[in-house]
Design a protein that fits this description.
The protein has about 100 residues and is α+β, with helices and mostly antiparallel strands. It has helices at about 15-30, 40-50, 60-70; strands at about 5, 10-15, 35, 70-80, 90-95. It has a single domain, classed as Arc Repressor Mutant, subunit A (Orthogonal Bundle). Strand 4 and strand 5 form a beta hairpin. Helix 1 (about 15-30) crosses helix 3. The longest helix is centred in the first third of the chain and has 15 residues, at about 15-30.
Length: about 100
């Protein structure tokens, strides 16, 4: 395991993608508590920070688990997906 810096100035220990991605998502949601954000905002910020799975769809499991654990919830705000041909998708809110 190695220590890495996240985009918010914190550090985390690299483990599996799911563990690192969950930590990144929770930090992102905490910084946006009560405000809607898109899943693409999170995943693209993670890529910029050097956290990217082989398949971007791996993030779906991370978001689903964070929602089940009560860290995020769906928002009423729709976001246009840049990676989804402009389709609309509901965002998330940090709880």
């Amino acid at each position: 395991m190695k220590t890495q810096m996240d985009i918010f100035g914190g550090t985390y220990t690299a483990r599996s993608f799911e563990q690192d991605a969950m930590g990144f998502l929770l930090a992102y949601a905490k910084r946006h508590k009560g405000r809607a954000f898109s899943a693409e905002d999170v995943t693209l910020a993670a890529v910029d920070a050097g956290l990217a799975p082989l398949e971007m769809r791996a993030w779906g499991t991370v978001f689903a688990q964070a929602a089940r654990d009560g860290f995020i919830r769906r928002s009423d705000v729709l976001f246009r997906r840049s990676l989804g041909n402009g389709t609309l998708a509901p965002g998330w809110v940090g709880v």
